[in-house]
Structure formats: C-alpha cells, structure tokens
User: Which sequence fits this backbone?
C-alpha cells in the first residue's frame, strides 16, 4: 500500500545562527551541502520511496525562498502554505485541508535519509497496526557519534533515553483525537541522527559530504 508524505519546511530555524556563516538565503533548508540545497536530499529520497505516491511540502511565511526554490525544481510535489503556528498545528491543518489518510511526516533537515529506510518504516507501521507511529533512537547512538540531541524522552522502563528523529506515520482520520495509541519504533539507522539544528551540526555534515566526495575520487 502506498501513502502520502509531508515534508515540514515552514519552521523559523530559531536555533540556527546565520550570523556565523555567509550564504545566499538565510533559511536553513537552503543551506548548501554537497552541491545541493539541504532540502533536496530529503525530497529526492521521498520521491524514490516505493511506498509513497504523493509528496506535499509545507512552507510558511518564514520560508519564502524555500518555496521559490522548490517551485524551480519542477518536480511532482504539491506545495501548501501553512499558518506557521507550530509543527502539530500545521500538520493538522494540512491533513484536514488535503483530506489525507495514512501519512508519513518527515523533517526537512536529515539529508542522509534513504528510500529503503522510509520503506521499512512504512512497512513497520502497517505491521504494528496502530493509528500512529513515531521513530526514535537511543541516545547512546548520538553519544557514539559525538552528537548532542535537542529533545530527550525517557523510555517506559527508564532504562534508556530516547530521541525523536522527526519521522512519524499517522492515520489522518484520527488527527482530531486528543490521545492516540502510538507505536514507537526504536531506530538504529545512523543516517537519522544527523539532522541540522545548529552551526555545529552543519559543520559535521559538511565534513561527511566532503569525505564522500574525496572517497569517490580515490
């Protein structure tokens, strides 16, 4: 079964200090990375995912240049402008406006994401048979790679600390429910822990892309 996907691309990027770098557009999703804009990696991964047949990108008044760049890409994408009232509020707005059913939401700042990872997450959603699924990872994976998470949740037994990676699947028919029976998928995919929230995150990801480029010429 194929589902829709939404890339949430309308945030303020308040944690990213643009004063420390010189770039053409002061919007996080247009940071240059390996010859492309940051958001292009996520777009390309979703468009190549077998289990997804519709891609919606949510922008807001905070991301006007992102909107323009996406339009110029001329890809099979539906753009929707949200009120920019926050992640959950904007998501609810999109799902109700477009009358979406089962939908995957993906943050736009995880450029190492791969189609097969997204396919596996969607397959897990249908196997677990719950109205919502959120993908998290063990904080120890962040520590192993020298990364600092911005949000940490204790697990049910408090034995490990879990970090949301910004990928969720939800049945749009349940979007108005106050509490959902939600499954948690604990991921071991390293690709999902490399997101860009700060200048330090951006520097680490640039090194990864530079190393890949050097390896391709060796």
Assistant:
């Amino acid at each position: 079964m194929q589902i829709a996907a939404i890339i949430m691309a309308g945030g303020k990027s308040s944690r990213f200090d643009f004063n420390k770098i010189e770039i053409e557009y002061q919007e996080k999703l247009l940071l240059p990375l390996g010859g492309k804009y940051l958001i292009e990696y996520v777009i390309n991964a979703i468009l190549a995912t077998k289990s997804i047949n519709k891609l919606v990108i949510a922008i807001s008044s905070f991301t006007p240049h992102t909107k323009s760049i996406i339009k110029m890409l001329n890809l099979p994408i539906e753009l929707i402008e949200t009120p920019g009232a926050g992640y959950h509020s904007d998501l609810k707005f999109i799902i109700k406006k477009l009358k979406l059913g089962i939908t995957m939401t993906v943050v736009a700042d995880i450029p190492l994401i791969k189609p097969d990872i997204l396919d596996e997450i969607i397959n897990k959603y249908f196997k677990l048979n719950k109205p919502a699924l959120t993908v998290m990872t063990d904080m120890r994976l962040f520590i192993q790679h020298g990364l600092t998470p911005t949000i940490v949740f204790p697990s049910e037994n408090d034995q490990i600390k879990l970090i949301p990676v910004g990928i969720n699947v939800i049945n749009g028919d349940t979007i108005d429910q106050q509490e959902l029976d939600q499954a948690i998928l604990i991921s071991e995919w390293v690709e999902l822990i490399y997101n860009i929230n700060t200048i330090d995150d951006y520097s680490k990801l640039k090194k990864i892309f530079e190393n890949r480029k050097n390896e391709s010429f060796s």
